[in-house]
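ping. complex inputs:
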Amino acid sequence: MKLSLGPLQYFWPKKKVTGFYKRAADWPIDIVYLGEVVCAKRRELKLDDWLQIAEHLNAAGKEVVLSTLILIEADSELSQLQKICDNGRYRVEANDMSAVHLLDGKSRFVAGPHINSYNAGTLNVLHSCGAVRWVMPFELGQSTLQRLITQKPDGLETEVLVYGRLPLSFSARCFTARADNVAKDQCELRCISDENGLPLQTQEGEQLFTVNGVQVQSGVPCNLIGEIDTLMEMGVDVLRLSPETGYMAGLVTLFREVVDQQCSAAEAVALLPKLITEQKWCNGFWHEQPGMNWEHKLVQL
Amino acid sequence: MVAVNSNIELVCPAGSLPALRAAIDNGADAVYLGFRDDTNARNFPGLNFDTAEARKGIDYAHDRGRKVLLALNTYPQPQHFERWTQALAQADSLGVDAVILADPGLMQYATEQYPNLRLHLSVQGSATNRHAIAFYHQHFNIQRVVLPRVLSLRQVKSVIESSPVEVEVFGFGSLCVMVEGRCALSSYVTGESPNTCGVCSPAKAVRWEETSQGRQSRLNGVLIDRYQKDESAGYPTLCKGRFKVKGDTAFYAMEEPTSLNTLEILPELVKMGIAAIKIEGRQRSPAYVKRVTQVMRTALNRCQQDPDSYTPAADWVAALDHVSEGRSHTLGALHRPWQ
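pong. complex structure:
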């Protein structure tokens, strides 16, 4: 069972990004997904900067995958996409069908969670184009995954997000700019101030979503630490954690210990509040319920 | 260079037989409809067509030289895949003019089983650029793409210039502020989304309550909005609720209740070479369909005859505002400052 670090969802200053991945080289993680996936206006790091980080991680023994932008509209975004797909060295995670088109029959790739892989027919199409791994879309759950693992083509690995705020939707509109009552083209890249996004609350103060530029995320992180045994039994190949600031090293280590059966899920859950600031999670999608639900039969808080 | 299309198809919503007749009688070139289940993205109670009704509707349209497009635009999961393949079989035997699909697995199945069935890529397929469209064209021979409502006018133009297939755009109706086919806000709160169940913010999860602080709307218990006495209350679609982001004032954090209205930019769309213009609203009444179809038919005729001297008449705009969400309209992403 491999562990991966998904692509960074937030806009961090360059120094913070390079420092984060420098440390990640020492974490017990097998795969690192790199690149800007949310907004094309975030250009603190250019492709060459990402490739430098990739070199460093690769030298540390990590499998590096370059993730592509999710919503691709402008010609400039298409040329950047072309450069990533043509990089010639690292595998690419396709997050839009445009990326699948550019990689089709040319390079082996990962079909990211934003490719709508809801059935075996789609997995067959993607595999025939060169996909060697697929990441389960976030709104799917256990029983669908079970069937898809049984029906999927041989040689296609399965990856599931087990920790992190869920990217729930994308827009051409920037919601971070909107919160300050400015238009997207006057955004001044203000989302760089929100290292874990901006909380969106109901009028009753319930933490419902997280605003992250053009992306809306779940209000609380998805947490499947209590499901790791099941995921392993089902034959999932890779478990993904999504980068957050502050506590990734401890979180990655804890998941590694559970995967390696050095720590039980119950023990891990008892340890979590000491590690991280988040005290609330969701896992509803996994249980085929509203995604925001937290089903805690196994995981007592 | 894209040739000006003088025969742009006006594609109108049909949530029921009366709505279908209203669309056809008032100038629709094509109607789109769905079966009465989760195979389409307007899976609402009391809406849509069983096989017999679909047969009647198709006869009504075909007798008058109009087309019928069938939406099978949700994403089937393995447990129920047969429901979608049966719907495709029905579509084929009913003789619809095209099916509107989003799911690649289902498209693959359709190209193998029904090679003569014309495929349109649904807005739920999220194709926002020429490479994505090329993928669906090469693999499944789609003949038309419906563009998500997140592109600017310039981007729409660029897509049309490079698209190997016909391009259909939304002309009027409720507005998705998120990229269609990539939004799980509804399933996060209710367990059901457009992709999985063909619904967004489903009615069965809605609760209204009168409180001392005003009228409140909830979706599966989550407070979506609170209205003062003089405010008119809208349907609690998640992205159109009032929430708090910074500070204590609740505001429309994602989108105001408003409708897309392209009357103002119709000449530009016509000159760009769109193949079809779509009216949203299968969940709306036959009266809505009649009114919007009349206005859009008149506007489109006027615009295609002489795009340069076209201006939207005040009574068209008023008529459309009257049936709009929040009684107001926007150009959405087509309008640059919005982005």
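The mean pLDDT of chain A is 95.
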